[in-house]
């Protein structure tokens, strides 16, 4: 009997807006490791392949090459394709790539290279954001394994979990003090931590259905976290 009410409420809460950066995914194929080695330079026609700057530049004329659409975010960010990511290493790689492709460094170059640097920058930013946050990283990894979470799957969630979320949301709506909001925030953070540990284990065991189930819950908690953020902004 709760099902109907819960579903309606979730529609109202707009779960769709759950913050997941970097939704645009690069296609992933078996060629991802090979990259653009078979392509020729757009500028001088020279052979592609690993050149200076991690294959971003032509070995002969050093012109910036277009992004490789077959390269996935893990490969681009030099991370193992796994849920466990070394965030310090990820950050270093992000800075390294930014120093290579940032549009500021191409202001004196051809329009083609300017355009490529814009595209590279966008992809590098997306890749970094996607792999940094556990939820988006998990969803991306799941997608690489061919599993996607469709929007609006509330009906598949167990009602006990939906009730738990509903109660947290009600508490948040009623919270009158900063301390009350803080308390809810730490509850949700603890839940997210627990989910992150569990999803990590599920990926280690190649249990993608389990990972999917936990990530779906994380989307709900993430939605609550967004609301907490809004509530914290002073309304005057
Ligand atoms: Zn060239």
TrEMBL record:
Using the record's annotation, list all stretches that form the HscB tetracysteine metal binding motif domain. Answer: 40-65
Pathway listed for it?
Cofactor biosynthesis; iron-sulfur cluster biosynthesis
**Which locations, inside or outside the cell, does it occupy?**
Cytoplasm; Mitochondrion
Recorded GO CC terms: cytosol; mitochondrion; nucleoplasm
Keyword Chaperone recorded: yes
As given in the record, the signal peptide range reads 1-18
- Asked whether the keyword Metal-binding is assigned, the reply is yes
Q: State the UniProt keywords alphabetically.
A: Chaperone, Cytoplasm, Metal-binding, Mitochondrion, Signal
Gene Ontology biological process terms in this record:
[2Fe-2S] cluster assembly; protein complex oligomerization
Which family is this protein grouped under?
A: Belongs to the HscB family.
Q: How does it assemble?
A: Interacts with ISCU and HSPA9 to form an iron-sulfur transfer complex. Interacts with SDHAF1 (via the first LYR motif); the interaction recruits the iron-sulfur transfer complex composed of HSC20, HSPA9 and ISCU and mediates the incorporation of iron-sulfur clusters into SDHB which also interacts with HSC20. Interacts with the cytoplasmic form of ISCU and with CIA complex member CIAO1 (via LYR motif). Homodimer. Interacts with ISCU (cytoplasmic form); this interaction stabilizes the (Fe-S) clusters on ISCU. Interacts with the CIA complex member CIAO1 (via LYR motif).
What does the UniProt function comment say about this protein?
A: Acts as a co-chaperone in iron-sulfur cluster assembly in mitochondria. Required for incorporation of iron-sulfur clusters into SDHB, the iron-sulfur protein subunit of succinate dehydrogenase that is involved in complex II of the mitochondrial electron transport chain. Recruited to SDHB by interaction with SDHAF1 which first binds SDHB and then recruits the iron-sulfur transfer complex formed by HSC20, HSPA9 and ISCU through direct binding to HSC20. Plays an essential role in hematopoiesis.
PANTHER family found in the cross-reference section: IRON-SULFUR CLUSTER CO-CHAPERONE PROTEIN HSCB
> Under which name does UniProt file this protein?
Iron-sulfur cluster co-chaperone protein HscB
Taxonomy of origin reads: Eukaryota, Metazoa, Chordata, Craniata, Vertebrata
């Amino acid at each position: 009997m709760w099902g109907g009410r819960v579903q309606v409420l979730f529609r109202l809460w707009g779960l769709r807006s759950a913050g997941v950066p970097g939704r645009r995914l690069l296609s992933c194929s078996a060629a991802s490791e090979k990259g653009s080695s078979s392509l020729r330079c757009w500028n001088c026609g020279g052979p592609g392949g690993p050149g200076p700057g991690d294959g971003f530049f032509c070995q002969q004329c050093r012109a910036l090459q277009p992004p490789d659409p077959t390269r996935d975010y893990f490969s681009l960010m030099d991370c193992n394709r796994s849920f466990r990511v070394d965030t310090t290493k990820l950050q270093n790689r992000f800075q390294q790539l930014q120093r290579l492709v940032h549009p500021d460094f191409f202001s004196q170059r051809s329009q083609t290279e300017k355009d490529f640097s814009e595209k590279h920058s966008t992809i590098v930013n997306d890749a970094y954001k996607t792999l940094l946050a556990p939820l988006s990283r998990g969803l991306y990894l799941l997608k690489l394994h061919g599993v996607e979470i469709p929007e609006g799957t509330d009906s598949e969630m167990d009602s006990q979990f939906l009730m738990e979320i509903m109660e947290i949301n009600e508490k948040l709506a009623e919270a009158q003090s900063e301390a009350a909001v803080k308390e809810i925030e730490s509850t949700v953070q603890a839940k997210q931590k627990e989910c992150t540990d569990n999803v990590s284990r599920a990926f280690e065991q190649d249990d993608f259905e389990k990972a999917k189930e936990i990530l779906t819950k994380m989307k709900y908690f993430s939605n609550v976290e967004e609301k907490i953020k809004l509530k914290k902004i002073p309304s005057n």
